[in-house]
């Protein structure tokens, strides 16, 4: 065959090969795109004024929709639930308006709220593929002056009885002043939604105790939840407790080979994470073994993370043993006979990404950079056995954020992956400058704010601002908008950081991405159906029945929410929807629904409030009750709290009553209205005080902020035959500003300044002025929000001393 013909044939073959190669890569891109659509969700963040509250405290927040799956105008309602972590009971639920992607709100915590760990859970009104879209959780701690009328202690009395094969739990029921509660009605259930192991009913003994036996050998990590309800008179108490699992190791020792797998004969870097069984990170030391030979001593840091480098041999066994915790052995992952090792010099990069790839046999691989939705960069490599290949990717064309570097084999299956962060130098910040560092009580604070982007460029921004006692901010509950947007929402349970801001510490981020990032190595290689996500908006709806039958003609309804009055028409069957505009209320979120027909006694209104659906979603969430604490193995009986100076303590209240099973009768009326010692109606500065009294209808009282008001009385909360009270959408109210010139009224707010929405200009400083109160000590100013180039955060600490 002539040489020219051979050359043409080769070109045609190569061209066909390249086309086939591109087709295969295109199919991967299409599948990845569909995976992104199926796993996409909106990003919601809430900035709360603090994360440690007292009962009857005021809560202030701003919500930011950072990105949305649906059009932003479809998001109109923020649903906020307060959940008690001890028993997953919902303390309260409220609705707030979302407008142009922002929500503002405030609420008062119940006076009866006992001390404990709680969480706010926020949802938007949208659902995607039958899942709530844009869920956000903020853990809080409550330090309460209220004595809980019922308390319960649950402990393991016996782990395992050889004869009965049972374990035993001891339940102790006490009153708020630590007296035994006799004959309390107790119901309990062991198991989960899919499997119930045991149920029972009983009463507490004369010393308030009950022994609950459980089949220890049937208990697993999936069914080990013990749920207890306790009733005495009209008081209820719910308790959840995780039963121990037989022969379960005390610690979780997890290994994360860089790239995803250990490869025979190749140098592998392995990240590892050490936790207690309840989720607290462990700072300790372990020994790495090859068969029974000591290979290395390895350590975890304050975040419970460490790493080591070694060259595994698949014919040998590798395991670790934690020093000082017994003889439990923790095996390393299986070693693959064939594969590639992927190594990054650093997972935090600016303009370029440097990596190294090595195979233990000869093969062709394809390397792609993607965001789990789109392939952004790609290259192919012919690898020789045991010869490392250096790679360098220019990142100029991709935005700031987390990405994956994935290696595909010649069948376009993922065989290694590594998460990295691009353009770390482009993270925005808020400059917070005060006129001085030290202030006195009732002093004036001048604050200058700027949003700053890369190369110190000033940016326009919209931010929320708080100034709060530093001991009302626990590092264990802390979240900020930058950590959340770039890391937390994508990687979930990030370990705590001793200096609060995770994104500021490159070493921390490198360690975390080593053990957290490759968990996203989940995207499928099989083709996914090309189905568009199903988007549904949760709306308030209802139906009117006449004589318990469907209507045959439309009916007129009216809604009253302060000055917001609307006329609603049902359809011919009596069905109707209430829009967000119908539910806006300045009257503490209350809306009255009126049946216009004078023969209202014949009608019945059935209502469908989305809060009911959200309630079911929230109470079924399973959470870890103890997280983000560090345990040192040289002090196994003590958890190390690295928060630095949280000094707010529980208040111990002594009672002379023998049977304290009722809440105190002081405080507000059934509408929540009260008068403080200075004759001020609903005085925010004295909420929850013991000497508050109920206001009298027709009497004049002073108003917070000045002036007087005649109290019109408490609107009855009960439904009338022609009226139904609905839970409407709260409109934001202004932050209460104390009169510093009034020396007779103490100013004891922990939050001395809050502003929902402050506009920062790219032209220069934005100045805010506010006053300190009567509390002294350290205060922290926190500023966070959105700029023209993404999220931004800033903080500043000041000191307040006696004048």
Which labels suit this protein?
globular, 803 residues, Immunoglobulin-like, mainly beta, 44% strand, ten-stranded mixed sheet
Tell me about this structure.
The protein is mostly beta strands. Among the domains are: 1-39; 160-242, Immunoglobulin-like, CATH 2.60.40.1120; 262-424, Macroglobulin (MG2) domain (Immunoglobulin-like, Sandwich), CATH 2.60.40.1930; 535-612, no CATH class. The chain is 9% helix and 44% strand. The protein has 5 helices and 59 strands. The strands form 15 sheets. Strands 1, 2, 3, 4, 5, 6, 7, 10, 46 and 55 form a 10-stranded mixed β-sheet that branches. Strands 36-59-58-39-56 form a 5-stranded mixed β-sheet. A 4-stranded antiparallel β-sheet has the order 14-13-16-17, with no helix packed on it. Strand 22 (285-290) and strand 23 (293-299) form a beta hairpin. The longest helix is centred in the N-terminal third of the chain and has 37 residues, at 3-39. The chain is globular.
Short description:
The chain is mostly beta strands and 803 residues long.
Instruction: State the total count of DSSP E strands.
Output: 59
Structural class: mainly beta
The appropriate CATH architecture of the domain at 262-424 is: Sandwich
Q: Supply the number of helical segments.
A: 5
Helix content: under 10%
Main beta sheet strand tally, sense and closure: 10 strands, mixed
Layout of secondary structure:
Layout: H1 3-39, E1 43-48, E2 52-54, E3 58-67, E4 77-84, E5 89-99, E6 102-108, E7 116-124, E8 126-128, E9 131-132, E10 136-143, E11 150-158, E12 166-175, E13 185-191, E14 196-203, E15 209-215, E16 225-232, E17 235-242, E18 251-257, E19 262-263, E20 268-276, E21 281-283, E22 285-290, E23 293-299, E24 305-310, E25 318-322, E26 330-331, E27 335-336, E28 340-344, E29 352-359, E30 363-370, E31 375-383, E32 389-394, E33 401-408, E34 414-422, E35 429-434, E36 438-440, E37 444-452, E38 458-459, E39 461-469, H2 481-491, H3 506-516, E40 535-537, E41 540-546, E42 549-550, E43 556-561, E44 564-569, E45 575-578, H4 580-583, E46 584-585, E47 590-595, E48 603-608, H5 610-619, E49 630-632, E50 639-640, E51 680-681, E52 700-703, E53 708-710, E54 723-727, E55 729-730, E56 751-760, E57 766-771, E58 777-787, E59 790-801
Parallel strand pairs: 2-10, 5-55, 19-27, 21-49, 36-59, 46-55, 51-52
Antiparallel strand pairs: 1-3, 3-6, 4-5, 4-7, 5-6, 7-10, 8-9, 8-40, 11-12, 12-15, 13-14, 13-16, 16-17, 18-20, 20-24, 22-23, 22-25, 25-26, 28-29, 29-32, 30-31, 30-33, 33-34, 35-37, 37-38, 37-57, 39-56, 39-58, 41-42, 41-45, 41-48, 43-44, 43-47, 47-54, 49-50, 52-53, 58-59
């Amino acid at each position: 065959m002539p040489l020219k013909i051979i050359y043409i044939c080769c070109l045609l073959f190569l061209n066909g090969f390249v086309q086939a190669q591109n087709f295969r890569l295109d199919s991967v891109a299409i599948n990845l795109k569909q995976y992104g659509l199926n796993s996409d969700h909106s990003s919601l963040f809430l900035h709360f004024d603090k994360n440690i509250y007292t009962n009857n405290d005021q809560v202030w927040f701003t919500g930011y929709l950072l990105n949305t799956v649906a059009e932003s105008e479809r998001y109109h309602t923020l649903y906020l639930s307060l959940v008690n972590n001890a028993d997953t009971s919902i303390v309260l639920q409220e609705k707030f308006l979302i407008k142009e992607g922002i929500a503002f709100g405030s609420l008062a915590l119940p006076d009866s709220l006992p001390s404990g760990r709680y969480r706010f859970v926020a949802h938007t009104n949208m659902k995607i593929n039958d899942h709530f879209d844009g869920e956000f959780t903020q853990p809080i701690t409550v330090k309460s002056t209220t004595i809980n009328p019922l308390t319960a202690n649950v402990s393991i009395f016996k782990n395992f009885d050889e004869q009965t094969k049972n374990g035993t739990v001891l339940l102790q029921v006490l009153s708020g002043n630590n007296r035994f509660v006799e004959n309390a009605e107790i119901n309990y259930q062991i198991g989960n939604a899919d499997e119930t192991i045991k149920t029972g009913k009983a009463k507490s003994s004369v010393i308030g105790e009950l022994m609950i036996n459980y089949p220890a050998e049937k208990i697993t990590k999936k069914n080990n939840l013990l749920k207890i309800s306790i009733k005495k008179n009209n008081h209820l108490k719910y308790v959840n407790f995780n039963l121990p699992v037989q022969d379960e190791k005390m610690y979780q020792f997890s290994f994360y080979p860089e790239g995803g797998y250990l490869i025979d004969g190749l140098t592998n870097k392995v990240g590892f994470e050490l936790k207690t069984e309840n989720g607290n990170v462990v700072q300790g030391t372990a020994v790495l073994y090859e068969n029974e030979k000591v290979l290395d001593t390895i350590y975890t840091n304050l975040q419970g993370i460490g790493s080591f480098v070694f060259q595994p041999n698949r014919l040998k066994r590798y395991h670790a043993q934690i020093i000082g915790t017994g003889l439990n052995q923790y095996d390393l992952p299986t070693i693959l006979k064939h594969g590639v090792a992927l190594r990054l010099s650093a997972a935090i990069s600016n303009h370029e990404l440097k990596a190294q790839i090595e195979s233990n046999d000869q093969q062709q691989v394809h390397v792609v950079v993607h965001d789990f939705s789109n392939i952004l960069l790609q290259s192919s490599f012919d690898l020789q056995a045991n010869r490392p290949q250096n790679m360098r990717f220019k990142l100029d064309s991709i935005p700031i954020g987390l990405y994956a570097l994935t290696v595909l084999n010649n069948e376009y299956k993922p065989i290694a992956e590594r998460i990295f962060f691009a353009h770390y130098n482009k993270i925005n910040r808020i400059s917070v400058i005060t006129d001085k560092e030290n202030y006195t009580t009732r002093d004036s604070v001048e604050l200058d704010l700027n949003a700053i982007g890369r190369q110190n460029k000033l940016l326009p921004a919209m931010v929320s601002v708080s100034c709060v006692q530093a001991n009302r901010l626990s590092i264990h509950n802390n979240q900020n908008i930058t950590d959340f947007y770039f890391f937390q929402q994508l990687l979930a349970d990030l370990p705590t950081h001793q200096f609060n801001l995770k994104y500021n510490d490159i070493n921390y981020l490198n360690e975390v991405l080593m053990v957290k990032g490759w968990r996203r190595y989940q995207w499928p290689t099989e083709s996914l159906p090309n189905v568009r996500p199903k988007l549904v908006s949760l709306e308030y709806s209802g139906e009117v029945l006449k004589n318990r039958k469907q209507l045959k003609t439309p009916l007129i309804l009216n809604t009253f929410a302060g000055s917001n009055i609307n006329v609603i028409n049902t359809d011919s069957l009596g069905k109707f929807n209430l829009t967000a505009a119908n539910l806006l209320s300045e009257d503490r979120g209350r809306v009255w629904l009126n049946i216009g027909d004078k023969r209202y006694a014949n009608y019945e209104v059935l209502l469908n409030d989305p809060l009911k659906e959200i309630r079911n979603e929230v109470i079924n969430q399973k959470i870890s009750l103890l997280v983000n604490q560090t345990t040192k193995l040289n002090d196994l009986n003590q958890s190390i709290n690295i928060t630095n100076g949280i000094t707010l303590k529980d208040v111990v209240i002594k009672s002379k009553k023998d049977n304290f099973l009722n809440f105190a009768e002081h405080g507000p009326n059934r509408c929540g209205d009260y008068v403080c010692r200075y004759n001020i109606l609903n005085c925010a500065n004295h909420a929850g005080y013991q000497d508050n009294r109920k206001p009298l209808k027709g009497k004049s009282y002073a108003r917070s902020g000045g002036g007087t008001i005649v109290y019109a009385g408490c609107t009855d909360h009960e439904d009338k035959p022609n009226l139904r009270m609905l839970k409407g959408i709260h409109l934001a109210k202004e932050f209460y500003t104390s009169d510093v010139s009034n020396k007779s009224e103490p100013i004891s707010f922990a939050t001395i300044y809050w502003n929902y929405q402050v506009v920062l200009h790219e032209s220069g400083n934005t100045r805010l002025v506010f006053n300190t109160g009567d509390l002294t000590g350290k205060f922290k100013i926190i500023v966070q929000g959105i700029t023209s180039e993404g999220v931004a955060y800033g903080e500043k600490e000041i000191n307040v001393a006696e004048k």
